[in-house]
């Protein structure tokens, strides 16, 4: 895409700068994010592929749907809803899990990979600061992937809903009643809440730790990210016979309070577990965000200093 | 304002001293060839100039401290580190889009016009291009940036002779306009002899020789001496002597050409010949007095 400023510049005034373009501080950030999408195409291709697989699998759910409806009629409302929403929750969970896994691998590779293939020398030859680059990379797991996960889920579940509605109507049940029981907006709302609280805010220190290791390590960033915490766990176990650190890690990984506490284990059921008050007043959340910021800042410092591998 | 001014630049990696109090001054509009043996500190010096590594001592590039202001400086400076730094996954079109996106002084039409003269397709990925094509692509990107300083560190490393010739031709014909400054390091010194306006030799982290090319041609002369006049020639204090096919070739600095002409054939030496002379005369001493003098002469 030729920007207007560049086009004018190229056509009419040969050498001197285009001050208008220089004044937009968001441009380097925007293009740094675009560059990440150029390089790591799995950020959008993997959710797309997973969505395709889900829809393929849903064909079998559709075949069984009339029988499921029959059986659901006999159930009490709660169980009825559960049996109907199950494939929808499953789809959302699968896409979310894919986004999480991509985030982990992306965060571990990004700052290490550009040093390994020496392309960091090319990136650094352009007027983009290290902090801008690191923030653009951090925005992938913290912003871009949750948004992609939500959008993919929304599209997949809309398609699922339309096909199920057709089957429901075809087998003589009431479509309105089906939509009513399904309450899909609740799933979507629960998903959005879960993505923001758990994937963006609660996991932020986790991703940022991986970015830091990725910027720091000279080889095998995965081992450096995983082994030191593991060593601390072992040390604590042997020296003090306690498990505070491993409990802390499990708590952090499992998503904290917003990912637990649901009676039927369904994190996407908003009524069961949405507790924004306690979540926002949890010191663990804010401490985690402080650590995330420190990790990112250090990662930017390291990127400035580290030479190619 | 000089384009680059360094005073007492120092950089050590562990116990290895890469820059040992390097002094350097490059005026705007010059094309400087920075020549040195492996491990002399060329790349370290360039990395310091480009804000890629921290250093001790004073350094100003276009009036800025490169380590503190790399991002700002890179609007006016471009560099080609060596041929292999373009990411292999990027498409030609993506590279152009990205540089156009982040660089306020990138002229997209210029880059595309340059690429149109090559066989590079805009849909190709860098990994699909040959080494020479990657160099052409990188040069296209860099030449479309309206920079005041261009730094080329071994830009033609590993390229065949055709690409190397093309590379310098494009640089001179399509880019250099006497207001831009270019620094180039290379081991293929003979290729840049007629490209550069200034010459510096770097050894053990210091500039050991500096001279502009007009002075170079006036000052230095090489004499292929007639065998029977060798003693006479040696008496005129050549700075270096070497044997080629049984004949002695003597290198003189500021000698009387008429006097020398009587002793054999004269020609302007190659940069490589002078380089060998300067570096071997250095021997263990890191600080010969005459070198300091010639250095002062060049900075003017």
Keywords:
heterodimer, A: 309 residues, mainly alpha, 15 helices, 80% helix, disordered N terminus, B: 300 residues, alpha/beta, Rossmann fold, 6-stranded mixed beta sheet, 4-stranded antiparallel beta sheet, 12 helices, globular, disordered C terminus
Write up what this structure looks like.
The complex is a heterodimer of chains A (309) and B (300). Chain A is built from 15 helices and no strands. Helices cover 80% and strands 0% of the residues of chain A. Chain A is globular, with a radius of gyration of 24 Å. Chain A has one domain. With 309 residues, chain A is mainly α. Chain B is an alpha/beta fold. Chain B has two domains: 201 residues, Rossmann fold; 85 residues, no CATH class. Chain B has twelve helices and 13 strands. In chain B, the strands form three sheets. Chain B has a six-stranded mixed beta sheet with strand order 5-6-7-3-8-9, sandwiched between helices. Chain B has a four-stranded antiparallel beta sheet with strand order 11-12-10-13. At the A-B interface, α1, α2, α3 and α6 of A face α2, β5, α3 and α4 of B.
Secondary structure layout:
The complex is a heterodimer of chains A (309) and B (300).
Chain A lengths: L3 H9 L6 H4 L3 H14 L2 H32 L3 H40 L3 H4 L6 H41 L4 H8 L1 H19 L1 H13 L4 H20 L3 H10 L16 H4 L2 H5 L2 H23 L4
Chain B lengths: L3 E10 L2 E11 L4 E5 L6 H8 L6 E6 L8 H4 L3 E4 L11 H11 L5 H9 L14 H13 L5 E5 L7 H15 L5 E5 L3 H4 L5 E6 L2 E7 H7 E6 L4 H6 L4 E5 L2 E7 L3 H5 L2 E4 L3 H12 L6 H11 L1
Parallel strand pairs in B: 3-7, 3-8, 5-6, 6-7
Antiparallel strand pairs in B: 1-2, 1-4, 8-9, 10-12, 10-13, 11-12
């Amino acid at each position: 895409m030729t920007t207007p400023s560049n086009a004018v510049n190229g056509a009419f005034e040969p050498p001197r700068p285009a001050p208008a373009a220089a004044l937009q501080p968001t441009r380097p950030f925007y293009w740094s994010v675009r560059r990440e999408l150029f390089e790591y195409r799995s950020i959008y291709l993997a959710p797309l592929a997973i969505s395709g697989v889900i829809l393929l699998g849903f064909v079998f759910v559709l075949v069984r749907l009339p029988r499921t409806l029959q059986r659901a009629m006999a159930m009490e409302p709660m169980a009825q809803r559960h049996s109907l929403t199950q494939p929808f929750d499953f789809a959302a969970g699968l896409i979310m899990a894919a986004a999480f896994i991509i985030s982990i691998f992306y965060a571990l590779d990004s700052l290490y990979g550009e040093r390994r293939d020496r392309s960091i020398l090319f990136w650094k030859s352009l007027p983009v600061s290290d902090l801008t680059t690191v923030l653009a990379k951090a925005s992938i797991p913290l912003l871009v992937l949750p948004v992609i996960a939500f959008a993919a889920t929304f599209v997949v579940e809309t398609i699922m809903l339309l096909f199920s509605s057709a089957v429901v109507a075809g087998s003589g049940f009431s479509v309105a009643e089906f939509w009513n029981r399904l309450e899909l907006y609740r799933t979507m709302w629960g998903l959005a809440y879960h993505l923001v609280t758990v994937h963006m805010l609660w996991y932020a220190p986790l991703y940022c730790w991986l970015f830091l290791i990725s910027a720091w390590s000279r080889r095998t960033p995965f081992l450096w990210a995983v082994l030191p915490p593991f060593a601390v766990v072992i040390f604590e176990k042997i020296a003090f016979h306690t498990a505070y650190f491993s409990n802390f890690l499990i708590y952090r990984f499992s998503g904290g309070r917003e990912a637990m506490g649901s009676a039927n284990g369904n994190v996407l059921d908003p009524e069961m577990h949405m507790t924004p008050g306690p979540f926002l007043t949890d010191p663990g959340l804010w401490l985690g965000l402080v650590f995330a910021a420190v990790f990112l800042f250090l990662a930017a410092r390291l990127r400035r200093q580290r030479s190619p591998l | 304002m000089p384009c680059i001014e360094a005073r007492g630049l120092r950089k050590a990696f562990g116990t290895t001293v890469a820059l040992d109090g390097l002094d350097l001054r490059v005026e705007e509009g010059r094309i400087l060839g920075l020549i040195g043996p492996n491990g002399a500190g060329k790349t370290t010096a360039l990395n310091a100039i480009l804000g890629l590594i921290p250093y001790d001592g004073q350094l100003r590039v276009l009036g800025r401290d490169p380590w503190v202001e790399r991002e700002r400086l890179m609007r006016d400076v471009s560099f080609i580190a060596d041929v292999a730094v373009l990411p292999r996954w990027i498409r030609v079109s993506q590279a152009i889009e990205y540089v156009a996106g982040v660089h306020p002084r990138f002229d997209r039409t210029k880059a595309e016009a340059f690429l149109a003269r090559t066989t590079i397709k805009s849909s190709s990925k860098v990994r699909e291009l040959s080494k020479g094509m990657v160099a052409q692509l990188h040069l296209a990107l860099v030449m479309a940036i309206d920079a005041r300083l261009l730094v080329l560190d071994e830009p033609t490393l590993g390229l065949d002779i055709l690409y190397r010739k093309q590379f310098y031709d494009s640089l001179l014909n399509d880019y250099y306009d006497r207001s831009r400054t270019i620094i180039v390091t290379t081991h293929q010194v003979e290729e840049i002899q007629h490209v550069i306006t200034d010459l510096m030799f770097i050894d053990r982290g210091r500039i050991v020789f500096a001279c502009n090319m007009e002075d170079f041609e006036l000052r230095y002369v090489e004499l292929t001496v007639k065998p029977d006049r060798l003693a006479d020639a040696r008496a005129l204090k050549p700075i270096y002597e070497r044997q080629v096919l049984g004949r002695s070739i003597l290198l003189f600095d500021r000698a009387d050409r008429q006097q020398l002409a009587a002793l054999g054939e004269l020609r302007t030496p190659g940069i490589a010949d002078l380089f060998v002379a300067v570096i071997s005369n250095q021997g263990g001493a890191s600080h010969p007095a005459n070198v300091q003098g010639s250095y002062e002469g060049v900075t003017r």
